[in-house]
Amino acid sequence: MKLPLVIHFVGLAPSPALEATIHARIAHIERLCPDVIAWRVTVTQEAQRQQQGRPFAVRVDVTLPRQELVVTRIHDEDVQVALRDALDAARRKVEETVRRRSEAARAGAAGPAP
């Protein structure tokens, strides 16, 4: 069962531009791995630091059958950079998981050598 994409904004107003970026990037990743069950993306603007601006944190939770992947990225000034880095890391993790699963399936299908 596929669940809808969940996007949360904490500490900042919801942004249609960020939501559009998230939807587009996730649609691209889902073409690589269609068995993703759920996506949760949380964009947070953290508390003000004394010497720097307010950093943005992006957390991406990807639920696959029998596995959950979590990626968190923080960037000091640009939410787009934090979002890009987090979704790129999520894509790499999904690709690695798909590769490992296909290798395991091929090894299991080949069976033990006589």
Structure description:
Helix content is 43%, strand content 27%. A hairpin with a 2-residue loop joins strand 3 and strand 4. The chain is built from 2 helices and 4 strands. The chain has one domain: Ribosome hibernation promotion factor-like (Double Stranded RNA Binding Domain, 2-Layer Sandwich), CATH 3.30.160. The model has no long low-confidence stretch (mean pLDDT 86). With 114 residues, the protein is an alpha+beta fold. The relative contact order is 0.16. Helix 1 runs parallel beside helix 2. Strands 1-2-3-4 form a 4-stranded mixed sheet, with helices on one face.
Q: What pattern of helices and strands is seen along the backbone? A: EHEEEH
- Give the number of helices: 2
Reported CATH architecture: 2-Layer Sandwich
Q: How much of the sequence is in beta strands? A: 25-35%
Amino- and carboxy-terminal Cα gap? 40 Å
CATH class: Alpha Beta
> Whole-number radius of gyration?
17 Å
How is the topology of this model organized?
Elements: E1 6-10, H1 16-32, E2 38-45, E3 56-64, E4 67-75, H2 79-110
Parallel strand pairs: 1-2
Antiparallel strand pairs: 2-3, 3-4
Helix pairs in contact: 1-2
What's a quick, concise take on this entry?
The chain is an alpha+beta fold. It has helices at 16-32, 79-110, and strands at 6-10, 38-45, 56-64, 67-75.
How would you describe this structure in keywords?
114 residues, Double Stranded RNA Binding Domain, 2 helices, 27% strand
